[in-house]
Amino acid sequence: MNKKLKSLPFDERNQQDFETITENIIKALQLIEQNPKIPATQNKLAELAKCSRKTLYNRKGSVEALKEIKKARNSKRMESSLKVANIAERDNNENASENNSQLIKNYQTQNGQLFNQVLELKEQVAGLLSANSIYEEDTKILKEENNRLNIELLELKRKHESKEGARIIKLVR
Q1: CB atoms within 10 A of CB 42
Q2: Residue 47, Cα to own-chain centre: how many angstroms?
Q3: Which class for 40: exposed (0-12), middle (13-18), buried (19 or more C-beta within 10 A)?
Q4: Would you tell me which of 49, 110, 117, 144 could form a disulfide with 28, CB atoms 3.0–4.6 Å apart?
Q5: Could you tell me which residues come within 8 angstroms of residue 28 by beta carbon, excluding any fewer than 6 positions away?
Q6: CA–CA distance, 107 with 113 (Å, rounded to integer)
Q7: What is d(CA 173, CA 168) in angstroms, rounded to the nearest whole number?
Q8: What's the confidence (pLDDT) of residue 168?
Q9: Is residue 151 over pLDDT 90?
Q10: Would you place residue 172 in the very low, low, confident or very high pLDDT band (cuts 50, 70, 90)?
């Protein structure tokens, strides 16, 4: 039962086509791997290898190799993104350090100015408190003088009224 199948005339041609397509797929994969500008897609691989996507799908190794190229590209992108991010972060840290130093100087200047303003305001408050106590004392003295004068006025009015009353009584008599 172990009969050897007869070789058909087109078997040799099929084998040559298989090997040519395999070589084309390998070259296309190498080209895609070396040139990051070429998209790592099955369509592009099929176009470069001059075969259909179904052929690529039937040859599992080519699709798997394409996936590996995509992974490698993504990891390279991540590494370069991390490097750029690290460089940017370092630059930001340096700029932040310079900015922080400038901010500290500005705050110190503002702090000094505010301190001087506080001292001036304290002097003004002390002067106003002193003036206020003087005004309060003067007000007290003036109120006392006013009260004394009011009392004196009342006494004078009484005297005047009593003299008027006496005069009227004299006139009436």
Answers
A1: 16
A2: 48
A3: buried
A4: 49
A5: 45, 48, 49
A6: 10
A7: 8
A8: 67
A9: yes
A10: low
**What pLDDT band is residue 1 in, cutting at 50, 70 and 90?**
very low
Q: Which two tokens stand for residue 164?
A: 């008027």
Cβ–Cβ under 8 Å, residues 62 and 42:
no
Q: Is 45 exposed, middle or buried (0-12, 13-18, 19+ CB in 10 A)?
A: buried
Query: What b/e string do you get for 49-78 counting C-beta neighbours within 10 Å, with b at 16 or more?
Result: bebeeeebeebeebeebbeebeeeeeeeee
Which pLDDT score, from 0 to 100, does residue 140 have?
94
Q: Which residue has the tokens 């705050």?
A: 107
Using 50, 70 and 90 to split pLDDT, how confident is the model at 12?
Answer: confident
pTM assigned to the model: 0.44
* 3-state SS track over 47-107: HHHCCCHHHHHHCHHHHHHHHHHHHHHHHHHHHHHHHHHHHHHHHHHHHHHHHHHHHHHHH
Amino acid at 130: S
| In the predicted structure, residue 18 carries a pLDDT above the cut 80 | yes
- How confident is the prediction for the chain on average, in pLDDT? 83
